[in-house]
Specification:
Distance between the termini: 38 Å
Number of strands: 10
Largest sheet: 6 strands, antiparallel, barrel
Low-confidence stretches: none
Helix content: 25-40%
Mean pLDDT: 93
Strand content: 25-35%
Number of domains: 2
Radius of gyration: 19 Å
Strand order of the largest sheet: 5-6-9-8-7-10
């Protein structure tokens, strides 16, 4: 996601931008944000078009309260800023859009009200949509596969990191409120399912935006 895309997509939530950027690790981008009017006026493309670290864009998107709607049955799929009067929709948060389709689609949908989007190629891998530590239940990961449901006790390995996770089972219980249940059903139609995982020799979460693969490593 480029600097201008981030500041444009979330310009209506400046408190979030300031909260995230005002950290020592993002000091460079905080200084640029304070100069944004000047940078735009002078057309400083080297700053405006700079690709931001994924972690920075994710921190901002994850704090946003906006909602979008994905028509996943359309070809190509279409992302809407509003809820259209059509069937087979999934409610998406900005962080999910960033992971699944790229940050530029957040800005594009926000500006144009809708935009076409394309799921990332899996190439027999498993896409990590989200990952959460649930103190009472363990590690919950939202994963997209090509077709198959992941079997219990399957071992998954990271592609970018040399770590392993064991599949403990799929989340199947009814979700409350009903809107959460609707989202679960919409995701299943796209081969996206919620699983409980367990780190093999570690307590780390798989990182959203990365990919896993089925491993032959001994359990």
């Amino acid at each position: 996601m480029k600097f201008w895309e981030l500041t444009s997509a979330f310009r209506e939530e400046p408190n979030i931008l300031l909260q995230v950027l005002n950290q020592d690790k993002w000091a460079k981008y905080y200084n640029n944000y304070k100069r944004l009017v000047e940078i735009v006026k002078n057309k400083e493309r080297d700053i405006l078009d700079e690709e931001l670290p994924f972690d920075l864009a994710y921190e901002v998107a994850d704090k946003s309260v906006r909602e979008y709607w994905l028509a996943f049955d359309k070809q190509p799929q279409t992302l809407y800023k509003y809820k259209p009067d059509i069937d087979n929709l999934e409610r998406l948060l900005p962080s999910e859009i960033l992971v699944r389709f790229g940050g530029d689609k957040i800005e594009d949908a926000h500006e144009r009200s809708s935009t076409n989007v394309y799921p990332k190629p899996l190439d027999n891998n498993i896409e990590i949509i989200g990952s959460y530590d649930l103190s009472s239940r363990g590690l919950l990961s939202i994963l997209r596969t090509a077709k198959d449901i992941l079997a219990v006790d399957s071992i998954l390995s990271g592609i970018k990191v040399a770590k392993y996770w064991k599949v403990k089972g799929e989340v199947k219980q009814f979700a409350d409120p009903y809107s959460a249940y609707e989202k679960l059903q919409a995701q299943k139609k796209q081969n996206i399912r919620h699983y409980f995982l367990e780190g093999v020799g570690h307590n780390d979460k798989p990182k959203p935006g990365d990919f896993l693969q089925i491993s032959n490593r001994p359990k």
